[in-house]
Amino acid sequence: MDSYRPLFFSIAALIAWWTLASLSYPAMPVLPEEWLRAAMLGAAIAYLLVTGNSYRRDGHNLSCMFLCSAALIPPAYYLEYWYLASDGAARDPAALDASLAHAVTVYNAFRYFLLLVAFIILAKSFIRNFKNF
């Protein structure tokens, strides 16, 4: 029964990665309407942070850094989006649109890169656990 444990955790990490990849698009989740998206995104972020911490305990610091970065980039973007939008009344609307467009471009570039690296790390872990099964 103990041989199932690493395989189960690697499959769960891949599912959390897929959830993060599919639900972390640049539109900020509006809580009354999109509470399920926010809850699933929060659960995926929490699980990937726990997985990253387990990589750190095993001595894989680079893998930990990329997994935790991939998990923390959506909340960082949503905080930036909230900050820019909350100050929108005091700004010029054209400047606000330019700031948001720039933030979305930078967010998507980093998100896709970090998701690719995190997928490579998690797929490698899954293949290793599957071979040891």
Top keywords for this entry?
133 residues, mainly alpha, 4 helices
Describe this structure in words.
By secondary structure, the chain is mostly helical. The protein has one domain. Helix content is 81%, strand content 0%. The chain is elongated, with a radius of gyration of 17 Å. The model has no long low-confidence stretch (mean pLDDT 88).
Question: Could you give a short description of this structure?
Answer:
By secondary structure, the chain is mainly alpha-helical. The protein has helices at 4-23, 35-57, 61-86, 93-131. 81% of the residues lie in helices and 0% in strands.
Q: What is the overall pLDDT average?
A: 88
**Which structural class matches the secondary elements?**
mainly alpha
Strand content: under 5%
Q: Helix count, per DSSP?
A: 4
Overall number of domains: 1
